[in-house]
Amino acid sequence: MQTDVLIVGGGLSGLALADHLARQGRDFLLVEAQDRLGGRILTQEFSGGAFDLGPAWFWPGQPRMAALAERFQIPVFGQFSTGDLVYQEQNGTVQRGRGYASMEGSYRLAGGIGSVVHALAKGLDPVKIMTNKRLTSIDHSADNITAQVDQNGTAQIIKANWIVMAMPPRVIADTVSFEPALDAGQMQALQDTPTWMAGQAKIIAVYDQPHWRHAGLSGDAMSHQGPMVEIHDASPRQGGPYALFGFVGVPADARAQHKDEMMRLAVTQLTTMFGPEMANPMHLVLQDWATIPHIARPQDRQPVRSHPRYGLPSNLRALSARGMIFASTETAPEFGGFLEGALEAAEHAASTLALHDPMQT
């Protein structure tokens, strides 16, 4: 199999790059290791409502996300923040009206962030998209790229002029072999780049009524007891069902070992913080990103506590001379880690490829 540009990774960055190339009429092939597109974006439906189990927000001053929403006519709405906040002390004591709405002013998309993934994928030729294909090796010793991908133990060779790795740098370092091998500095640069949100887990509790709103609460909460340490309203733009979601503060290994107990404690926590009506959610869902090897590696199991300084190191940027481009959100210099960063990375990759487009020279 042969193509001009091989895109590895069907998350937002990879799909956005494929969209750029498709509109330019340029030949490409996109392969994705998982059985679905979206990467860290995952929107699922429960009782007729769409809920984000991955990223849920973008912000003013992030023009690429706003432009995509406008292009695909996806309604944008503000994060619900009307009402009091709730604060839980380490001893379990609950206070009302303390703290601040950390996500107030952020934007969400009707139908969830997955609506952007769906819209981008819908506009692409399905023949050019292949799922369940994991990149295992890259030979860049000649004038072109020879990539090997694996599907359930069966290897396939794809030859390309360019390969764009729209996947977390640590996943590349741990799972892809290079011939000739990358030097120690390049491998270290890949390993040193934290995968944003890869160590995180979210719990979503879905209800037929917004009980917290009826009680004059915004759904925003902070807790020093847990298991959820930060909680927000995750309800759809209009109508029900309604939901709260929380970032889990329990370490990844403990989450895996004590899942049932953790979920029981999560319901107890919601009841303690928001009222007895919260005791029986229609759905209670855990999405643990640390368990997905195509996204999180062992060193990601400790989530980052502050936003890393992202951007593509110069020694990795230099590999574009060998036909290799890195384009996950972690490579974006301005919005690294955000949805906007994935689009920024795709934009930079498209610009690099445009400089070498044989149709433009």
TrEMBL record:
EC number annotated for this UniProt entry: 1.4.3.-
Record-level Gene Ontology MF annotations: oxidoreductase activity
Alphabetic keyword roster: Oxidoreductase
Keyword Transcription belongs to the record: no
Residues annotated as domain Amine oxidase: 12-94, 101-352
Top-level taxonomic group: Bacteria
Major enzyme class: oxidoreductase
PANTHER family the UniProt entry points to: AMINE OXIDASE (PTHR43563), AMINE OXIDASE [FLAVIN-CONTAINING] B (PTHR43563:SF1)
Family: Belongs to the flavin monoamine oxidase family.
Protein name, entry field: Flavin-containing monoamine oxidase AofH
Lineage: Bacteria, Pseudomonadati, Pseudomonadota, Alphaproteobacteria, Rhodobacterales
